[in-house]
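Quick one, probably user error.
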């Protein structure tokens, strides 16, 4: 907005916007100095924290752009804005025109100006569309509005369901999202491509909503295949962030609700008036990251993150636990073998200033090893991981019926192992990702020594060591066995979690975001 714009000018601009919104027209004029700007109301971090009520109306939002996405108060469905018209996408897959008086807790909009168009060949998958866009954009540092218009042979969507106070964090609110699948449908995918450095502020990577041609169905896009279509790209080099203004939101923007993280120690800081954004790559201190994989995985799973840690100037060592390397015999291995392996590898290399990191089940060998390595550690990080309690095995943390099924599977196997199923990969580890990627992961995983899950640790909690501890949580994590597991584990540490986008396997699907999470102070 120009500094010379008068109140009368602003009123006329608002009136033009509302008339266009009511009629569906997209010819609203806007200031030239805003043409390359993305305007965003609130932050993704606030939404992850459960801040679902905002005071920005759709009418006000549309004065800042004619294209965008977001959600509505109470997390009541998804929002998509096309050609100056705002649509409300609900959990049953339906879509309707939003009212100008509707409120939003989070939204991002821009004035869409087509810079590049790309024809989409028939049969192009989601991954191939993303590759076409990545190849076409001139710089990965900018924000890009993405519009894919055409006919889709298949498209899978999901939509968040309306929540009621007291609001759960987004990781819990999205656990029961309804999914819809459309076939042979014409419509538009609309959203943004955002750089990883905006993690916590926006949604890094690609965030696309679908709206059909009749403007009656849609949702958040999970996967799709294009029958025929065209990609339009609009670049933006400026970013305008409007922070939450309502009193109920401002004190929770940077902190998890105390009831969720179960930490009275955090409550005093939750109510601080000023929250500080902590950027991921700070300081010049060089650390050695020792990376412990989760169940069924080996050191290969950490390679994308390890490479980025090295690019940031650190050292990284990705371990493979005994029994999980190609050709290993897993028979008879106990949990203590994994603990001893971590200790031996660190001591053999005489490592110091070690950041010990574990994913998923890896929290068990991490906790056991940390007590022997305390003098060598500068930090301990649980990444979407189990945080063991003394005397409780990994199976003790699972729902009883599922734990009983796993025990039966272990005892029935010839080598006393637990092998993953494709259903576990699809529903718990990598939900929402293309099936081809899920299949690749499934075929790469190996059976886990059963005693790794049956044995418990007899050591105090890692917080007794006096070493800094952090918890990095994947925003869409379904891989910890039960819906409230993450809350319990984080509560045992008494820390504020660092949330990164992606499923349980975000170390593979979003290694940039996980790396930034590990490097946070």
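Nope, works fine. Designed sequence:
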């Amino acid at each position: 907005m120009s500094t010379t714009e008068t109140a009368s000018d602003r009123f006329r601009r608002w009136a033009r916007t509302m008339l266009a919104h009511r009629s569906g027209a997209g010819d609203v004029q806007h200031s030239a100095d805003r043409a390359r700007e993305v305007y965003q109301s609130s932050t993704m971090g606030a939404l992850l924290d459960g801040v679902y009520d905002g005071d920005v109306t759709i009418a006000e939002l549309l004065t800042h752009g004619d294209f965008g996405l977001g959600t509505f108060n109470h997390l009541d469905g998804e929002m998509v804005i096309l050609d100056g018209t705002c649509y409300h996408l609900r959990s049953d897959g339906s879509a309707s025109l939003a009212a100008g008086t509707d409120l939003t807790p989070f939204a991002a909009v821009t004035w869409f100006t087509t810079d590049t168009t790309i024809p989409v060949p028939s049969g192009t998958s989601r991954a191939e569309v993303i590759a076409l866009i990545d190849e076409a954009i001139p710089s990965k540092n900018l924000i890009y509005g993405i519009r894919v218009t055409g006919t889709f042979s298949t498209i899978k969507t999901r939509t968040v369901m309306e929540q009621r106070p007291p609001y759960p964090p987004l990781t819990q609110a999205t656990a029961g999202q309804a999914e819809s699948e459309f076939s042979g449908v014409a419509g538009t995918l609309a959203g943004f491509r955002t750089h990883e450095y905006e993690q916590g502020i926006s949604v890094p990577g690609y965030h696309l909503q679908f709206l059909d041609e009749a403007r009656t169905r849609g949702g958040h896009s999970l996967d799709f295949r294009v029958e025929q279509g065209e990609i339009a790209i609009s670049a933006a080099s400026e970013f305008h962030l409007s922070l939450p203004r309502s009193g109920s939101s401002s004190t929770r923007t940077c902190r998890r609700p105390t009831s969720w993280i179960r930490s009275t120690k955090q409550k005093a800081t939750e109510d601080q008036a000023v929250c500080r954004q902590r950027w991921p790559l700070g300081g010049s201190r060089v650390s050695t990251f020792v990376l412990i994989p989760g169940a069924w995985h080996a050191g290969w799973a950490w390679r994308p993150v390890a490479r980025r840690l090295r690019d940031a100037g650190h050292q990284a060592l990705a371990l493979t636990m005994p029994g999980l390397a190609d050709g290993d015999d897993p028979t008879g291995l106990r949990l203590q073998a994994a603990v001893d392996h971590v200790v031996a590898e660190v001591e053999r290399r005489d490592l110091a200033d070690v950041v010990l990191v574990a994913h998923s089940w890896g929290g068990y060998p991490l906790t056991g090893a940390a007590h022997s390595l305390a003098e060598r550690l500068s930090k301990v990080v649980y990444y979407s991981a189990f945080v063991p309690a003394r005397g409780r095995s990994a199976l003790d943390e699972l729902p009883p019926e599922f734990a009983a099924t796993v025990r039966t599977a272990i005892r029935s196997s010839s080598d006393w192992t637990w092998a993953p199923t494709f259903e576990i990969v699809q529903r718990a580890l990598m939900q929402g990702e293309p099936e081809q990627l899920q299949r690749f992961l499934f075929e790469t995983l190996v059976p886990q020594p059963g005693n790794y899950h049956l044995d418990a640790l007899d050591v105090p909690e890692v917080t007794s060591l006096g070493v800094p501890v952090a918890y990095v949580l994947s925003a869409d994590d379904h891989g910890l066995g039960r819906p409230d597991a993450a809350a319990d584990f984080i509560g045992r540490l008494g820390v504020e979690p660092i949330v990164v986008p992606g499923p349980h396997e975000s170390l593979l699907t979003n290694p940039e975001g996980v790396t930034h999470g590990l490097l946070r102070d």
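The two ends are 36 Å apart (CA to CA).
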